[in-house]
Structures are given as C-alpha cells and as structure tokens.
Amino acid sequence: MLLLCFAAVLLAAVLLSALAHRTILSTAALFLAAGFVLGEGTTGVLHLHADSPIVAQLAELALFAVLFTDGMRVGWADLRSAWRLPGRALGWGLPLTLLVTAVLAHYVAGLGWAEALLIGAILAPTDPVFAAALVGNDKVPARLRHLLNVESGVNDGLALPFVVVLLAVAAGSDDLHLGELSAELAIGLAVGVLVPLAAIALERTRFFAASAAYAPLNGVAIGLLVLALGKATHGNLFLAAFAAGITVATFGPRERAAFEHFGENVAELLKLAALLVFGALISPQFLGEIHWTGWVFAVLAIVLARPVALWVSFLRSGLSLREQAAAMWFGPKGFASVVYGLLVLESGIVAADEVFHLVALTIVISILAHSSTDVVVARAFDDTRETPNWHGVLRRVRRTVPAPGQRPDRASGDAAPAGEEAEGGSADAQASTK
After folding, report:
1. What is the helix (H) or strand (E) element at residue 407, kind and residue range?
2. Which among 98, 146, 171, 370 is least buried, having the fewest CB atoms inside 10 angstroms?
3. Is the separation of the CB atoms in 254 and 11 below 8 Å?
4. What is d(CA 244, CA 258) in angstroms, rounded to the nearest whole number?
C-alpha cells in the first residue's frame, strides 16, 4: 500500500512539476500533505507509526543520499577558497541558533533546560533541499548558494554529538560517551575519504574501466559502500556521506559528471518517499495534542532563532542586505531533525513524546513555509525582474501631464517647453525606448 500511494503521488508530482517550478506550489509540500491525508490518523490508508522500522531507516537513507549528492557539488578547492562565510554560519550561527531555540523552548514551551537544549540541537541543522529553487538558481549569487549548500552539509554531522550528549544529560546519565562520539566522527570522516579515493584509484589503473552505461553507477557503488562501512564501523554516517561527496568532486571529476543527474534523481526519490512517510505520522489528533504554547514556540523557532543567530554571525561579513535576509530566512528543518527526533522518541526519556511533538510541528511548518517561498525569493535576485512593468507605464503617464510653463506636444502627446519642441520630443522618445 505504501508503494502504491508513493507511485500515485509521484505521478501527480511529475505532472505538476512545471507549475511548481514557477509558482509557490511545492512538490515537497505535496508529498507531506499527501502523507497527512493518507495517514492512519486521517483516512487510515497507511498504517505507520513513529516506532515503525521503515520510518527511521527511510529518513536516515534519504538524509545520507541528500548529503552525498550535496557534497558532489562542492570540491575541496571550492571549500578552501570560499570557507569564510560557511565558517561564520557554522562557527557562530549553529551554536547561537541552538541557544536561542533552547531559550524559546524553556520560556515559551515550558521545557526543562536539558530538554530545551536538546530540542535546540535537534532543530539547529538546516536542509536547503527544501529551498531548491534558491540553491539551484544561477541568478542567485554564487557565494550565497555556496554558503547554504556547505552549511547544510556540515551542520547535520556537527549537531549529532550535541544531540547525543544532551540526550544523555536529559536521561540523567553520568556517562556522556565523549570518547565514543569523537571516535564516530573520526571513523565517519575516514570512511568518507578513503573509500572514494580507493575506488577512483582502482578505476584509473590499466586493469579497470567503467563503460558508458555503467559509469553513473560508479557513484552509487561508492555511496553504498560508504553507507555499509559506516554502519559496520559505527561511524558518523552523515559526515561520511558529505565527506565522500566532496572527495569524489575533488579527485574524480569524471565520476562526478557521470553521477550528477542520476544521483540527484535517486536522492530526490528517497527524499520524497521520506516526506510521504513523515507526513503519515502527522494527524489531526497529533496536532491537537500540542498546547498553544507549542505552536508559538514552533513559529518563533523558525522566524526568530535562525535570523537572530545569522544576523550576529554576518556582521561586517560583506554580504548585501538581500543576501543576508535570504540566508537568515532559508534555514529549513529537514531530514536531520526528523532522524534526531526519532532518536529521542526511541530513547524513552520522560519528555520524549513532548519533544518529538514540538520537533515534528516545527518541521512541518518549516517545510510548508520554506518550500513555498523559495521561488519568490529566488526571483528577487533576477535583475531582469527588479524593475516592475508598471514603472514604465507610470513614467509615461506622468509625462503626459503638462508642467507650468509647458504646453502639450501635439505630435507626441508629451509636454515640452516652449521653443524646444524638437529637443523635448527627442528626449521623450528616448525615455519611451528605455
């Protein structure tokens, strides 16, 4: 039944994709809404619960695929030459977003400080996959697209240690497992770098070569091997995924080019399937269980926490006001927050259910808000659209009104000073042409 529903919604999304590309309609929102309608709490077509194995597995797999393809877009040379702005967003923006969100969770939603800091860590990562029209639009400044892409790829893995430590604090554990966390990050980074390097080196030997038909599968094989080894060695999967993508982009431009379109389509399918499943977990009863203060918190977590954090982070950064505003707004909550929220639900801490409800509500509002405004904000960077059409009409209408000491020009209908009809008519013609 899940496969049938996904296929039907996918067909609808394909048929509406051209309309969604140029309007506020969003395919991400379409899958989320479809999951909500088909879920057990609404129509009962899909029988899924937060503790269903497929929920956590699909969310984790989708996040891995998205981070792997995101890393493919950024090579090490790009990171090294343009790290200043992402460094600000990660070094200042991430912890400040965590702290502001925690303050809101404590004073608005009424959570204890341990749970408030935990929900701040869960909601700190961003996912610009829901702002694809902004990140993938060539008219948007390259440094802004680079900033959002790198930030989203790295902050998922950086937030995980905070989530695990704060989860242990909320559970009252004396052992924070800092050594294990450091080992997970190191193993994930090593797997993400060494596996692609070995695969690329093998293909460049005289004994091996990928055919044109199988070349796109090279990236898939690398990604699957990184995923499997990461799980087997208990490494950080998300850091491994992003590191593997960057390694392929840096040392295997041919493999990167062959994988690009195919890999993006695979990641898109997994993302949409995860959205459908996540939407099925949300129901009217689920939303009704959230107190009104939780709704206020979810809205403030989106419109206040990240904007304040990035405003401080980008002081004297050289970004224009328009670029700063776009970066401050586009901090959508996505798969990382879903996965971390499910970890909390499985942990069994006292406030697990309340934390998951607040996280899920914030993600739903974020997906609807950010995926529906990406096209609008992207168009603001299109210089050909900066001057509205009515501007020229208003200017021509204003010129038809004679000023004191002028008389209408009978040939053109514009006002011209006496004795200067020929010169005034020429100026008006030039203005009309402009």
Report:
1. strand 406-408
2. 171
3. no
4. 16
